[in-house]
Amino acid sequence: MCKGLASLPTGCLERAKELKAMLGGILQKSTWNLSCCKIGQNKPNLEECLRWKESFEKLLSSKYGLCAFTAFLVSEFSEENILFYFACEDYRKTKSTTKLPAKAQKIYDEFIGNDAPREINIDHETRDITRANMLVSSLSCFEPAQHKIYMLMAKDCYPRFLRSPTYRDLVCQAKPNAKATKKV
């Protein structure tokens, strides 16, 4: 029987809601809404679900895909990856150069520094490069670390998501697009 995200423990979805509250402006997607993960609301059609298999970028660019992927990461206790990725995206969009040092330090302390509460899994060399980049606080100071995390998600988390019962259940529950099923 298909259960979609309902197959995730309720604690995971609650944790995802907490993450949404913590992210605030980081996601920079006005349509981001974890209530979309609730079964029966805003379900993607079959074509959208199948597009997620085409590429990691297509998954992240889909409102529901991002929601489902984030809920999956929460269930695997690896949501720090997506949080860091979007924190870096938000940082790169910062227009005020006076805000850069404080934002950079906050990201570093949260994800990269010693005893970071949401420490990401990057190699020592990338950590050192990022620490050195922090001295200037340019818009690209997190680029090497963000790239490593993106590649980790694309090569590890994304394939596991596509093989997960959560994704299979979403595809099973999804209805074909009405326009695609109509014969002209």
How does this structure look, described?
With 184 residues, the chain is mostly helical. The protein contains ten helices and no strands. Helix 5 (80-92) packs across helix 8 (143-163) and helix 7 (124-133) packs across helix 8.
For the termini, the CA-CA separation is 33 Å
Please state the overall shape, judged from the principal axes of the Cα atoms: elongated
Q: Major beta sheet, specifics? A: none
Structural class: mainly alpha
Mean pLDDT: 82
- Overall number of strands: 0
SSE arrangement:
Elements: H1 10-23, H2 46-51, H3 56-61, H4 63-75, H5 80-92, H6 100-112, H7 124-133, H8 143-163, H9 165-173, H10 178-181
Characterize this entry briefly:
The chain is an all-alpha fold. It has 10 helices and no strands.
Considering the chains and any ligands shown, give keywords for the structure.
184 residues, mainly alpha, 59% helix
